[in-house]
Amino acid sequence: MRLKKWFKAIALKDRSIDIARASKWALTFVVIGIIAGLGSIVFHYLCQLGLHYFMDFIAGYRPPSPAGEHHLLTPTNTPFSRYTLLLLPAFGGILSGWLVYTFAPEAEGHGTDAAIDAYHTKGGFIRGRVPIIKTIASAITLTTGGSGGREGPIAQIGAGFGSFLATKLKLSDRQRRIMMAAGIGAGVGSIFRAPLAGALFAAEVLYRDPEFESEVIIPAGISSVVAYCLYCLVFGWGSLFESPDFLFRNPLELGPYIILAFVLVGTGILYIKLFYGVTSLFKSFKIPNHIKPAIGGLCTGIVGFFLPQTLAFGYGFAQQAINNELTIPFLLLLAFGKILTTSFSIGSGGSGGVFGPSIVIGGAIGGAVGKLFHQIMPGIVTEPGAFVIVGMAGFFTAVSNTPISTIIFVSEMTNSYHLLLPSLLVCSLSYLAAQKWTIYQKQVKRKIDSPAHAGEFFVDILQTIKVKDLMHIVKKVELIPQDMTFLDFKKYFSKTKQHYFPVMDQNERLIGIFSSTDIRSVLFSREIEHLVVMKDIGTSDIIVATQSDDLNTVLQKFTTKNIDSLPVVKDDDHQILIGMLNRREVISFYNQQIQKMKNKAKR
Q1: Per-residue model confidence as pLDDT tens digits over 323-374
Q2: What are the φ/ψ torsions at residue 580 (nearest 5 degrees)?
Q3: Same domain, 554 and 578
Q4: How many Cβ atoms are within 10 Å of 218's Cβ, its own excluded?
Q5: Rounded Cα distance, 421 and 363, in Å
Q6: CA-based end-to-end distance of the chain
Q7: Which candidate, 182, 171, 177, places its Cα nearest to that of 217?
Q8: What CA–CA distance (Å, rounded) separates 86 from 38?
Q9: What's the number of domains the chain is made of?
């Protein structure tokens, strides 16, 4: 009875330790969510103030807002000035360029790529000043007319705090990576009002293949929910966009959706190539880095002079496209103009994200294709606005290799879940057709290619193989009696190819071992060779392997004292020798297993 109570007490103690550890981690991710949510609030306020004083007050440009957002300040009566709009992005480029390249050069471009790189190659470490500089620089770039998204800076705010907190708590690189990724999910999920998608995005965007960083999903989910709730308490609940209750009812409509997928892929490849072509061009300029965003801003302003709808965020035009309020020419000019302004604004070294512009571009292309098919076959394509939503998801999938999180993203952002079937089809086709290209160059192909997981898969495979699986290469060897003289052993040694010699007692139990190297000191001392017995030469500190040991453990034992052969003994009695296991044969067996796995994977 006492024993039963003792075991119960131990079990309760272990459970309380697990609960305490889980509570501590949950609290940590709640804190990350709070900071990311506050960061989203501050960044949104900065963007609203910037749009009011730069775009509205100075240039008289007041682009529409999505249904889920409203102006925080009353619009001014400043008349619209194209010439002011021409120069305003260059002004913003000068300010943001000086800020970034003076204080945090790694804050240039779209911040999500920097966060991905930190996850894979820097142990999740991000300098503390980067999120602050990124926030201010992005707000300046985007509110002076630069084309970009909000997810890049807000991802770095959350990621930066997660990294900072892990560093202060002196946690491991793995824990820092998880906390950094949780910050990404919280930031993106809150500012786009898509908490589930934010968590999935943080786990999926790290890789080009359809893989998730599974250990990130739950922490990112906790942080994302907290950040989302905090953000919505300030700016109101609901989705970023509002859409009619689109329904998918006609399977024939899948034909136009398939064509849409390939149009989105072509546009996506153009976007990526132009974006990085502009990036390479600006990097080749032999001028101070902080001047480059100003030149990019001027190019953006020139496009904006003719197509002002391509400046700043553009979410309001995506909302109008959902409501079927825009013409086909306007939608096409919006899409291709947005590709140009985003490439100039961010590719020149300006600060901002690429998800936001992708949503606008994809929505515009989807709207144009939807309206075209509505004119051709109005009985099948009844709602062109549905193609806007599916176009958003398909286009970002094509440029980012994140099909699952993107489907959820667009569904949450538009509050439209009835288009999951065509979204799944279009995103799947877009992913398969555009898999070779990505806007996130720091993505790695698979987990096995990530420096963050270096060595893990090697160990995982080794741990699945036990010594009992190697019994066919365990060799029977002769046991050397402990009282055998060295003189007698010399006669035996001259006739054997054996290199390791287990020593046994009178009951044939293992008591020592020596190698051919160990006998050198006696080999040429003939005066003592009849006096020395083999028990004196062998070591009693034997490193053995049991049948239940895995290959990882065995290889560690081989390297402990740089030995080439291990005695294999019984699990329950380490003095009963089964045979000897050779290091070369173990490595050869491992290579054979790997080759079998590769061949199986190819079938």
Answers
A1: 999 999 999 999 999 999 999 999 888 888 888 899 999 999 999 999 999 9
A2: -115, 140
A3: yes
A4: 16
A5: 17
A6: 57
A7: 182
A8: 33
A9: 3
In a domain, 2, yes or no: no
Cβ–Cβ contacts within 10 Å for residue 575, how many?
16
For residues 477 and 404, state if they share a domain. Answer: no
Angle among Cα 459, 461, 465 to the nearest 5 degrees reads: 110
Domain that holds residue 222: 23-235
The model's confidence at residue 3, banded by pLDDT at 50, 70 and 90, is: very low
Tell whether 277 is covered by a domain. Answer: yes
Instruction: Say if residue 498 is exposed, middle or buried (CB neighbours under 10 Å; 0-12, 13-18, 19+).
Output: middle
Same domain, 226 and 263: no
Tell me whether residue 39 is exposed, middle or buried, using C-beta atoms within 10 angstroms of its C-beta: 0 to 12, 13 to 18, 19 or more: buried
Q: How many residues does the chain have?
A: 603
Helix (H) or strand (E) holding 239: none
For residue 174, which phi and psi values (nearest 5 degrees)? -60, -45
Answer whether residue 13 shows pLDDT above 50.
no
The reply to whether 177 falls in a domain is yes
Residue 431 and residue 474 share a domain: no
Q: What is the CATH number of the domain that holds 321?
A: 1.10.3080.10
**Which two tokens mark 247?**
């329904």
* CA 342 to chain CA mean position, Å: 23
Are residues 446 and 315 part of one domain?
A: yes
d(CA 282, CA 280): 6
Query: Which of 395, 426, 452 finishes a domain?
Result: 452
The reply to whether 15 falls in a domain is no
* Structure-block tokens of residue 523: 């080999």
The answer on 496 and 356 residing in a single domain is: no
**Statement to judge: residues 199 and 325 lie in one domain:** no
Going across the sheet that includes 565-569, the strands are 545-546, 565-569, 577-582
User: Rounded to an integer, what distance in angstroms lies between the CA atom of residue 253 and that of residue 377?
Assistant: 10
Radius of gyration of the chain (CA): 33
Spell out the residues 6+ positions from residue 513 whose beta carbon is closer than 8 angstroms to its own: 500, 501, 502, 503, 538, 539, 542, 567
Residue 447 tokens read as 């987990």
Mapped to the 3 state alphabet, what secondary structure does 312-327 carry? CCCHHHHHHHHCCCCC
80, 305 contact by CB (below 8 A): no
Return the closest-CA partner of residue 182 out of 38, 43, 26, 407. 26
d(CA 85, CA 8): 73
pLDDT, one tens digit per residue, over 444-493 is: 887 777 777 765 555 566 677 788 888 888 888 888 888 888 878 877 88
- Category of 109 on φ-ψ map: left (φ > 0), alpha (ψ -120 to 50) or beta: left
